[in-house]
Each structure stands twice: as C-alpha cells, then as structure tokens.
Specification:
Layout lengths: L6 H4 L3 H27 L1 H8 L5 H17 L1 H15 L2 H20 L3 H4 L2 H31 L5 H29 L2 H6 L4 H4 L1 H13 L5 H8 L7 H8 L1 H22 L2 H9 L3 H29 L2 H22 L4 H27 L7 H17 L2 H12 L5 H18 L12
Helix pairs in contact: 2-6, 2-8, 2-9, 2-12, 3-4, 4-8, 4-21, 5-6, 5-8, 5-20, 6-8, 6-12, 8-9, 8-20, 9-17, 9-19, 15-19, 15-20, 15-22, 16-17, 17-19, 18-19, 18-22
Function: May be a proton symporter involved in the uptake of osmolytes such as proline and glycine betaine.
Membrane topology: Multi-pass membrane protein
Family: Belongs to the major facilitator superfamily. Metabolite:H+ Symporter (MHS) family (TC 2.A.1.6) family.
Amino acid sequence: MTVRAPDSLSAINAVQRRKAITAACIGNFIEYYDFVVYGYFATVIAKLFFPSSDTAASLLLTFAAFAVSYAARPVGALIFSHLGDRHGRRTPLAVSVILIAVSTTVIGLLPTYGQIGIAAPLILTFARMVQGISVGGEYGGATSFISEYSASRRRGYYTGWQTFTIGLALFTGGGVATILSAGLSEQALSSWGWRLPFLVGVPLGLIGLYLRMRLGETPHFEAARAHADVERAPLLAGIRRQWRSLVIGMGVVVTPAICIYILFVYTPTYLGQVVGHSRFEAQAANLAGLAFYCALIPFFARLSDRVGRKPLMIAGTVALATVTYPAFLMLGSTDFLIVVLGLCLLGLAFAPHSAVMLAVVAELFPTPVRYTGLSLSLNIPVTLLGGTAPLIATFLISWSGNPAAPAFFVIAGAIVSLVAALAARETAHSDLITA
C-alpha cells in the first residue's frame, strides 16, 4: 500500500538534508576509495603479500583476496539490515563506518610476507573480510538514509549524490595513486609509498562517525515505529512479500556491479599488464575517464526527477551493450588519447543507468523492509559479479587470448539490467512506499 510521506518529512530543511546526505555518503567514499587504491596497487601488493615466480599467479591471488571480501558482504547485509529495519538506520551506519576505517588502516600498517611470512596474506585477507561485512551493511543503509530524508520531487538527485561520491572516491584514490606513482621511485613505492593512501582511513572514519552520530533517525523509520509497522523478521517479510521487487532490484544492480569494477578498478591493471602502458599512463588515463564519468552523474540524476527513471535505465543499458566492445578495442591502443576517449565513451554509456540505480531500488521497497531489500539487492549482485570482476576479466583474457574479452562480461550485464528496467514500474515523482 502506498501512502503519503510522513508529516515530519516536510519539516526537514535544506541544511538537515545536506547533513544527512554527507553523513550517509562518507562511508561509501571510504569503501570505494580503499577498493580503487587496492586495484591501483594490485601489482605492488601481489609482490609483497603473494610472492611467486609466476607473475600472473601472484596477481590472480591478489585479486582473489579482493574477491574474498565480497563473499562476506551478504553476511554484513543480513546482520546490519536486520538491525536497521528493527531498530533504526543510524546505529548500524555508525558501526559500519568504524569497521571500514579500522580494517583499511590495518592494511596500511600490515607487515609484508617477507617480514612475517604466511601471516601477512592471512591478515590481509581477514581485514578484507571485515571490510566486506561492514560494507555489506553500509551500502543499503546509506541509501535508505538518503532516500528517506529526500523529498519525492528530488529523490533521484539526492540519491545520485551517493553515486557521485562513489565516483569521487574512485577519482580521489586514483589521483593519490597516480601522484605517488609519478613522484616516487619503484623501490620507495614498494617499500612504504603504497601504504600512505590506506592510512587516510583513520581521519575519514572519525569524521564519518562524528557526522553520523549527530543525526537523528529518518522520518520514515520514526513514522513506522510510531505506527507499530516495524517488522520483527524483516528478511523473511522481504523475501515472502517483496520477492518480485528483490528480483528486479538485483537485475538493475547487475550492470553497476560489473561496470564499477571493470571500468574503474580493474582498468589500471588491464592497461598496464595487458596493453603495456606504464603505471603512470594507465592510472592517468583511468583518472581522466573517471573525471568525465563523475561530471555526468548529477546531470542524469537530476534529469531522472524530470523524465523518470526508466528512460535513463533503458538508454544506458542499450548504450553499454552497443559501445562496450568498440570501446575496449580503443583501450587496446598504445595511443594514450585513444585510450582516454575509450574510457570516456564507456563512462558516457554507463552514467545514465548508474545515476538513477539507487533511487530505483530504494523506491521498490516499503519502509519496514527497505534496509533489507536494498542490502540484498545491492550486495548479492556485487558479491557474485563485482568482487569477482577483475578475476573474471583476467581469466577471460587468458582463456580466449582476446584482450577485449572483458567487454563481453559488461555486455551480458547490460542485457540483464535492460530486462530488469523493462520489468520495473516507473517510480519517479511518487512518495516512498511506507507500508
């Protein structure tokens, strides 16, 4: 049943909304900042923590540790979403940002294989698992928080800032990695330089915790609690009554789950290891593509509040299915400018769907199970496809002998999301479902 938004929502002013958006987004910033740094320094981490005479095997182990953290995301999603739908959004978000910051810091301070032996890769993998648990609860909770603080006429725009923040985190992490790669020798980078970006997690975590603890509960959850609409078992209720929304939500998320990691995390390694660009060139090209992609997000997010979500989802997925393979052929060029143009082309095709994805999934679920529905919809595709994306891309190239083989992975994801977009109802311009 769709009912009017809580009366308290109309009393929220612009300053409160900005604070809510900032507090919700900062955890996502830390998460994706860490992941892009890990991706940029994958070759360095491989040598330090997974030494092997076979460079490809060492790199595969590094990306396997990257994927292991994603296996823990559904666990975090179940734990944090249960707490978020039963007791409120704020506390789970505060705990998750602490765990993300601590685990990121541990990676930055961790001794190498040469210093403590097998304990080094084991601790690294464990830290990634802790991150996975916290991020599993973070993503859906942050989206719930933003969407429930947003007015219906601007929900696409506000939730779009969460996607923008993810892009900003990738850009910032990439920028820091590029500066370090350009300014430090190979020896200094391998010895201590790669650690610096991870250690930024400490101040960011403290800032995130401070902002989140100063916010009140969302108006939608407060209204649900006041009317005794809180579910005792939100997971069971969500699966039983919202299974169709879950299927559509997961389908919508398939494309971002693949694209974020193939286009913006794996690309520096791809350009360096497969194409043969220098580390600086690979990172600089990826950075240029990211900047272009980030600039598009607010525009498409705002546009969705005017023309609707479905037209942008359909346009984006069709564009991705059409241009991805030609764009990957461009990425295979030794000409730096052509590589940048290929990345910008991919960013342009991906941005319309990416900008509206979070608003669409948030609008599929009623308040009593929104945190749970979002967490499952976001984390299951990301676990299966996002965390394994670099591993799958590396395997596809090795198996087929075609450097552009990862394009087919992206195209398949775009087709799945296109079907989901066609099946979804238009949710723009309407109040969130409250019960």
